[in-house]
Write a structure and sequence with these properties.
This protein has five helices and twelve strands. It is α/β, with parallel strands linked by helices and 237 residues long. The protein folds into two domains: 88 residues, Translation factors (Elongation Factor Tu (Ef-tu), domain 3), CATH 2.40.30; 129 residues, Rossmann fold (3-Layer(aba) Sandwich), CATH 3.40.50.80. Strand 11, helix 5 and strand 12 form a beta-alpha-beta unit. The radius of gyration is 18 Å and the shape is globular. The two termini are 28 Å apart.
């Protein structure tokens, strides 16, 4: 049985409108074994029956704290984004989940993200860069508008530091006259194919809404005709 631990909110960072990153400080003596890409389940002490799982946006090399990045959505997300502050306390269950980066020789990773679904991929890129791995990783990130890009500066810095890491954004609802010089439109087979060098040795990840993940799954399974074993997905709503 997994036991919840009370953690203090050490820091609250605004990422974009309606989205914040919370740093949860581990209590003294707490030193869990976990892996990048896992999630934690949390609840407020005054509402123990209402729990919500969030992907870690930090990586397993980040010790002494967890970081999660929360969008204002649902009861928990709204309370966290609107009311959370440093010094508040939350109950946290140990990390779990199998949405794990495959850092193996000869493997390549293509990570498809929609909206706040980009959060676990920050951990992927952080770990690979800090460990000096040569695993090729591409994060293909779909948002509605440029001001919704979460972790823009950190991803750009990681891409500058790690030549094996690519970060690209497409905007689906940007106005024609808007000063956006990047890609426009949704996730497509053509965009995916630009980053596909060795299909048989590529692991695909998709994280986002049900609709976004369904699109990603369709591209990998029905258009690229690759087996399910090469695809890992997390979705909500």
């Amino acid at each position: 049985m997994r036991t919840a631990v009370e953690m203090e909110v050490e820091r609250v960072t605004i990422e974009v409108a309606n989205t914040k990153t919370l740093r949860l400080r581990w209590p003294e003596g707490y030193d869990p074994e976990f892996r990048t890409g896992q999630f934690i389940t949390m609840y407020w002490a005054d509402a123990p029956d209402y729990k919500r799982a969030y992907s870690l946006s930090s990586c397993a090399l980040d010790r002494g704290h967890f970081e999660i990045t929360v969008k204002r959505d649902g009861k928990m997300g709204t309370r966290l984004v609107d009311w959370i502050k440093a010094g508040d306390r939350l109950m946290v269950l140990p990390p779990a989940g199998r949405f794990l980066p495959v850092f193996e020789p000869g493997r390549e990773l293509i990570c498809m993200a929609g909206g706040s679904g980009v959060t676990p991929f920050r951990g992927f890129a952080r770990e690979a860069t800090r460990r000096g791995l040569n695993t090729p990783i591409a994060v293909l990130y779909s948002v509605r508008t440029p001001d919704e890009v979460i972790f823009h500066d950190e991803f750009q810095a990681l891409a500058s530091e790690n030549r094996h890491f690519k970060f690209e954004v497409t905007c689906t609802r940007v106005e024609p006259e808007a000063p956006w010089t990047g890609r426009r439109g949704r996730l497509t087979l053509e965009w995916l194919a630009e980053h596909l060098r060795d299909p048989a040795h590529t692991v695909f990840y998709a994280c986002g809404s049900n609709a976004f993940v369904h699109t990603a799954e369709n591209l990998v399974l029905n258009h690229l005709h690759l087996p399910k074993e090469q695809l890992r997905a997390e979705k909500w709503g």
